[in-house]
Amino acid sequence: MAPVDLHTHSTASDGTQSPRELVQAAARIGLSALALTDHDTVNGLAEAEATSRSVGLELIRGCELATRVSETGPEMHLLGLWLPAPPRHLLAVLADLRTWRHERNHIILEKLAALGKPVSYDEVLAIAGDAPVARPHIAAAMLYKGYVASRPRAFADYLSDGGPAYAPKKTLSPEQALAVLKADQATTILAHPYLLGLSLSALEDLLKKLIPLGLDGLEAYHSEQPPDITGQYVSLAERLGLAISGGSDFHGAVKPTVKLGEVKGGRHIPNQVLQDLKAWRARQ
Ligand code: AMP
Ligand code: ZN
Ligand code: FE
Ligand code: FE
Q: Is 134 close to ligand 1, i.e. is its CB under 6 Å away?
């Protein structure tokens, strides 16, 4: 069975390919299933589903929500997979998430202006369109204005976490995000655990706190972790009774080194990951 990719972004959030282009590309490279997991929106899902029917690919309706490990700690991302249409509980919180992004984005633009790189909100909106505005849109505006040579450079020099123009955004708490996703009967996955920078035992402690709040699984395959981490995460998930998931976190030109359907070392995410996730979900 053909491999899968259960974590991707489109222009509905901060990716650079439309949902249609993304699904077409997934079919072209031979994936059997794709989850579209845009940040803070489900607006790309209808187009992705329509395209998936025409190209014969399985589309899993998803979304990625940001939370924090602690109030001032780094972001911790959660994926909701198999969202219903419409996801009533999720839709009820999305307006707040947009407001919090808006407040944060203004601070970033103020910092950029102070650094001699003024970008107006309208210039960012011209790139973001209807998407929840995210740092990649600001990076694209900086590239357009000739301030940086590439989007990755905009992050490296200004926008990355802790960078000179960075400002944190307010997020849901893990409790809130998991409650919303579970209320919509989604399968909940801790995204890219490696990026939390925790030891395996600290991650285990965190997972033990998240499971009673509604966490179903762990993203054991991801493009931004060493390949040997996958096995450790699979064992950890088995020990804790968690499901496993896997995705590239493809964003297109924002992260040019990340390829659709691939994790580190050009490896694929086996179809079995999806079959096991479905079996896990059926038992719930
Ligand atoms: P935001 O939600 O506005 O904080 O933006 C977060 C998004 O920016 C992530 O989902 C990535 O798409 C992107 N991002 C964060 N850090 C980097 C980086 N160092 N290089 C490229 N993209 C990044
Ligand atoms: Zn993103
Ligand atoms: Fe993420
Ligand atoms: Fe993501």
A: yes
